[in-house]
Design goal:
Blueprint lengths: L18 H10 L3 E13 L7 E16 L1 H14 L1 H18 L5 H18 L10 H14 L5 H8 L8 H6 L1 H23 L10 H9 L8 H13 L5 H13 L7 H12 L14 H20 L3
Antiparallel strand pairs: 1-2
Helix pairs in contact: 3-8, 4-8, 5-8, 11-13
Length: 313
């Protein structure tokens, strides 16, 4: 665990300074940012009756000091690591009971039971949203929101920055509502993500290995493929350490024949070479009717069926 900022404050008299002096120092070294309270004042437009411009007016006597984003995440991750035992007890206890409850059920019944548990746990989080965002994205946003509130826990922030490891004991967990909140949230989040991983309720591009793939996918301009197809291509190329010319050719024809890709052979070849750092030669027009090619096509068919099942396509 990278605790970059733990104990970063080494000023011998830091804890004796008043809060304003501490805030100024932490702002000067870039660990805190200043947030000013303010309002938008409506100013009537002289040229358009009934229309207004808005002028931001700040109250410089009403400041709040926030941890920068990196520091927020560093403290948050430190707390998860420090109180790992409390966190892990939540999903462990859940899945012991869940696995016992689904024993002997058919696959469709198991998935339905998993969805019921997912919805029940998700609803306990009381995440407010008036948008059409999916639940996995809303969980991601809720985590960001909870993490951002860490600035309000000044004792935790200062103890972390001064390296006071003794401060983070059992008593802190038992007495601090914010700490209990994040451990409870993360424990439930782990359950939800594992249920989603097993039963594929929604594609997760926020918490698992899909995060990196989705970033790459967003930068693709040469192919008009879905994210699921992009993941499938990655999976097929990961299976073999050094994809051969014939392997990639068969992959192209499988994708094209099943209408998973619309682009021609040259565009696909350029995409594969640039995306995966390969040196695939020109894919010929001829459909390679030979036994090995047909075997590879059949293999891709099985892989796609399995992939579509496990990835909820």
């Amino acid at each position: 665990m990278d605790n970059k900022y733990f104990g970063t404050i080494t000023q011998p008299n830091f804890l004796e300074w008043d809060i304003d002096t501490q805030n100024k120092y932490l702002t000067d070294i870039g660990l805190f940012t200043v947030m000013l309270a303010g309002d938008n004042i409506p100013i009537p437009k002289s040229t358009v009756p009934g229309k207004f411009n808005f002028l931001a007016q700040y109250d410089y006597n009403n400041k709040s000091y926030l941890c920068n984003t990196q520091l927020q995440k560093n403290i948050y991750n430190f707390l998860l690591d420090r109180y790992f035992t409390y966190l892990k007890a939540i999903p462990v206890n859940f899945f012991i009971k869940f696995e016992d409850s689904i024993f002997g059920l058919e696959n469709n019944e198991i998935k339905k039971a998993g969805l019921n548990e997912f919805n029940a746990i998700y609803n306990t989080l009381k995440i407010k949203s008036f948008s059409k965002k999916g639940r996995i994205e809303l969980l991601h946003l809720e985590r960001e929101h909870i993490s951002s509130n860490i600035s309000k826990e000044r004792e935790i922030v200062i103890a972390f920055l001064t390296g006071d490891e003794v401060f983070f004991d059992v008593e802190l967990y038992l007495s601090n509502l914010y700490l209990q909140t994040i451990i409870s949230f993360e424990g439930k989040l782990e359950i939800l993500l594992e249920l989603n991983r097993k039963y594929n309720f929604q594609t997760d591009i926020y918490f698992d290995e899909n995060v990196v793939l989705f970033e790459k996918y967003q930068n693709i301009i040469s192919l008009s493929i879905t994210f699921e197809v992009f993941k499938f291509i990655n999976k097929c190329l990961d299976i073999t350490k050094i994809p051969s010319q014939s392997y990639v050719v068969s992959l192209y024809f499988f994708l094209f024949d099943n209408q998973l890709i619309n682009e021609n052979r040259t565009i696909f070849q350029d995409f594969i070479n640039s995306q995966f750092d390969l040196k695939i030669k020109r894919i010929k027009n001829d459909f390679p009717e030979n036994k090995k090619h047909l075997q590879r096509m059949e293999k891709f068919k099985v892989l796609w069926a399995d992939f579509a099942l496990t990835d909820g396509e």
